[in-house]
Structures
1.
Amino acid sequence: MARFMVPKSHPRYWSLYYRHRLEEAMEKGILARAGMIAHGRGEAFDYLIGEKTVKPAEEAMKAAVAKFLLAEHPVVSVNGNVAALVPEETIKLAKALNARLEINLFYRTEERVRAIAEELRKYDQDIELLGINPTRRIPNLESERGKVDEEGIWKADVVLVPLEDGDRTEALVAMGKFVVTVDLNPLSRSARMADITIVDNIIRAYPRMIQLAEEMKKLPRGDLERIVESYDNGKILSSVLIHMRDRLTKLAEGGIWRKKEL
Ligand code: PTJ
């Protein structure tokens, strides 16, 4: 794999850096081929929100963290894209939320599961990883897509399934799970089906959620319950769409021709 040679002064340095990480992950057998396409779609939506954490995403993150801190069997799921982009943060987040970690793949192969486990163990050799030998299946999902761990997603009351396929999100909701997703596309089926949708880049969302978990751990249960009860995912998705509309209107009216920053 060629080294990453882009100079830090490049205006799109970070975008190119994360693309390079995906290329590396592809070579290591971590990433599904469709993971590249999914990333491109995410990048496009990130442009639309302004490549910053928007207020409705901050609100969704707070509700998600509160729900996780209240959960009995919380599980954080990790797939190929997530392992490529935020492996260390995934481990830190699961620990901060007191959640178990499950490798759960849409395009599951045993080789990819092994490659992802190896990648995660670089950051914590002793980390417990579920999903290596899953014995249960999500009802009404055919073949490899539905395989889950008895001790993990199967048993979970609250699950975080970032960058997820809508069909599986819907199936998890149908199983009675409380589903949290991270998805830059507010129009995706996952975004529309989940109980809490964090419309943000996972690269920004996970570090912020780790911070929130550390802060919110100190709150009494009653306060956490009130945060969850007052949360309305429909309103949050609408607010993200309105943010995009207003931002695009402002850009269109102000002009973007040869503007260096948007
Ligand atoms: O590793 P696997 O086998 O589990 O497969 C993972 C992918 C992502 C390929 C699989 O789950 C898939 O096909 O997902 P979709 O249906 O393409 O949905 C992924 C969603 O994540 C899309 O709506 C993207 O906009 C969004 N997305 C992509 N990159 C990011 C993102 N959301 C947040 N942060 C990102 N960096």
2.
Amino acid sequence: MYSEKVMDHFQNPRNVGEIEDASGVGTVGNAKCGDIMRIYLDIDEDTKIIKDCKFKTFGCGAAIATSSMATDMVIGKTIYEAMEVTNKAVMEALDGLPPAKIHCSVLAEEAVKAVSYTHLTL
Ligand code: FES
């Protein structure tokens, strides 16, 4: 029911953790299941390129896998490009998710969009 890529990112999640003194932090809750996601971004002040991105979640396996992929996808992009990364693109990169788990994939996208920047003027 889960693709090999989903299982890989669930079992070996990339970019788990926190960034100390992050440029921005975004936290969202999932209206459907109540799970929580927090994303940390380290951004180059001049280029606005995301140098590092980490996440922590109380979400399920699908949330872990999609956040792992989403954080991989936004690293190296500018913060403006990262805003364009949709949960659909993340799901496609993971070769799909079961329909009942699509709401889990929204957490990472929403958390990136919810980031408030502490040390940065955009
Ligand atoms: Fe809550 Fe998947 S069930 S994030």
3.
Amino acid sequence: MITSANISEIRAQVKAWHAQGETVAFVPTMGNLHQGHITLVREACHRADHVVVSIFVNPLQFGQHEDLDAYPRTLNEDKLALAEAGAGLLFTPTPQIIYPRGLDAQTYVEVPGISDELCGQTRPGHFRGVATVVCKLFNLVQPDMALFGKKDYQQLQVIRTMVEDLSIPVDIIGIDTVREPSGLAMSSRNGYLTAEEKALAPALKRTLDNLAAAVKTAMPIPQAIAQAKAALADAGLRPDYLEIRNAHNLAPVTDTDTALVILAAAYLGKARLIDNLEFSR
Ligand code: PAF
């Protein structure tokens, strides 16, 4: 695996692959890789001739009081795992390379509406930071396709909307969430949980399963959600939001919608956990 922080080198390598008629898949990450990321890389290897991964802890998507400085950085371990999973090229830019004029002077990509709801309400500016860096990484790497985990369901919808609105020629592929045997969705931020909290955390996925089951048995959505929020609080989690939306566009549910998604965020100790569940009724 070639590792480079140099934009010209990354571009030259991808250009050489394309010149040979070969396809390139891209997996953008912030590092501290777990099995969820490795699954994305393995899937990417099945779908394309070459896989490019980026590791960049993007300051633009962290709020002022968020965990940018504390965000776990494990480059050496990540490199070993990526090489073993089959990645061919690793891009490791610095903030100066991605934002040479500084964060305040940077041109932004803003996906309206969807960016301001759910996680966007608690984390204002977060999705603007995500859309901006993903757009920029797409322009730098110029892949044929890019893979994202469905654990960040709203992020995936923001990126799909951006790609459609800006006619970016990259296929966006969503990959199912990878979970611990307990049901807890894998996340770099699970590292913030104490052993005790880790035992409580699977209550989030259990609550989503029970909520979907309740809605399928025709319990009115507001009642089912109130019940689920109470269950989360009983389990020791503090719900941030818990909502059911149209699975395709995240719009509020109408009577005729059949493909639905439950989206949830809840605080547990120092961690803010997010999870979701697609289901149909
Ligand atoms: O999901 C992530 O790790 C990040 O939001 C992403 C897509 C790499 C952009 O920084």
4.
Amino acid sequence: MKIKKSISLFLVLAVGTVYAYAITPGQKNKGKEAQIIENASVQIKKMADEIEKTGKILSPRTTDKNDKTVYVVLEEWTSGFFPGSLWYLYELTGDDNWKKLGIKYTEGMERIKKFTGNHDIGFMIYCSFGNGYRLTKNPAYKEVIIEAANSLSTRFRPGAGIIQSWNANKTKDWICPVIIDNMMNLELLFEASKLSGNNKFREIAISHANQTLKNHYRDDNSSFHVVDYNPKTGETRHKQTAQGFADSSAWARGQAWGLYGYTMCFRYTKDSKYLNQAEKIAQFIFNNPNLPKDLIPYWDYNAGKIPNEPRDVSAATITASALYELFTYTQNKKYKKYADTILKNLASDSYTAAPGTNGNFILMHSVGSIPHGAEVDRPLVYADYYFLEALKRKSDIESGKGLKLTDF
Ligand code: GLY
């Protein structure tokens, strides 16, 4: 018994030392931010340890009703977020152990560069290999990014000028559905264009962004979720939702994808229409009477039972990260203030999980898809990823370095 106790005490001290060590070197943040990063490091270290024990490349996504981590196959759209989070922790802490894990879990998903089953390869490859290349300049990663851009380009439909998100669906009468989320995949194309010198990727991205601006946005600057096209003529056939409350409603994560997407399009093109669109989306979000005071939205701005509806923390973290970038282009301090408020509120006990709980995800209270009954009021790997990205962007801005989103 005594021996067991001593061993336990040794383990607690040893593990504590490892965690303390993990967040000390390179830790330039002080005070509250340092605590948030320390907490995130402890949680994701536990998550990584669990995965390492299996000896497999696993892709954590959410938790089940018993709070156990749920893993998904690498072909799921969320597979790039865990490797991406490892890269952000490496940047936030300077600890090489995160880099080693980042390399391992990024390289473990290389086969995804050939994935053409839907549009999500942009999320998958850019969050993993994109961040990996940004931080290591490994030339093999560059080749993966270019090959992935080629894979994504196979879904471009020149007659409509868009990238087809999902395959046709007879039950829904969709021939060529495009979802607002697809704006996020354009980052892969813009970067691949720079890396390869092949302008085709950039032209596809610009065409998609323009068509989406024309067909997805309503007069109040909210966005439809799904627009179905005739791929030959570009005529729109349906404007609907798959994950929102109603076809005419504003699904919260969709508004966040649009805000992030158009801000990013301005980064690569300097075309003011994209910046204007991003500002209009921000206006829609922050002037919305249904946005709670703590700025963490309900899962849909028009959900039927507000205020008795689940929040979607993932929409909040995507929004915060986008707002830091929008702030750098506009110098409008209100964007940074909104983002700071979101991060501060997420760092509270209301949203941040106690270490060792929540399947070792950092944040609680996201929503995957209420219409599908999936991941309702659960942690989500992408909520954590954009939280870490937002923390990194905040730190870059406040240290005076400015945002260094790419330096390829
Ligand atoms: N891209 C899928 C989602 O946002 O749920």
